[in-house]
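Continuing the batch. This is chain 6 of the set; chains 1 through 5 are on the previous pages. Same settings as before, nothing changed between runs. Recording input and output for traceability.
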Amino acid sequence: MESLNQTLFLWLNAPEHPGALTLMVAISLAEWFIWTVPLLIGIGWLRGSENTRKTMLVATASGLLGLLINQVIGLAWSHPRPFMIGLGHTLIPHVADSSFPSDHLTLWWAVAFSLMLQRGPRIAGIGLALLGIPIAWARVYLGVHFPLDMFGAAAVAAISSWLTLREVRWYLEPSYRLASGIHHRIFGRLIALGWVRE
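Output for chain 6:
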């Protein structure tokens, strides 16, 4: 399996001197698109109904659980990144920690899968899930992940989104009350002006 992982990596990894446009697109996908997740959740919370806000909380819980599962996996089994074993070309800096599964894609897909499993924003979830594929390519292309790290991320994301939806009765209402209290405290003036939804 490791031999296949490395072979696929070398097939997808960037050449030593990639084209400027391809490099720019890959870096944008790999490093900047992740900010779409908190932006989407923030907009959904600030402008959405109570149901939308609860959907965003479940998606947030899914992402956080996925990252927690990744930490446990990384502690139990530390898998080196390609540059840690001198494989391929690395075109962006990255800390030398465990590569499996990808935190980036776990967070992305955990939120996407959560939205897909819930009633309201399924189209947004499908769009995010599909956009995760070029992000996964970019992380491998730039040399910071192996292909199997992405399959691991998808598996963890699927588990975390399923678990957080299955156990929603245990945490959603208290977390919604807490988040609503913080929301009113921070945005009280903007709510009064009608710029932010109550």
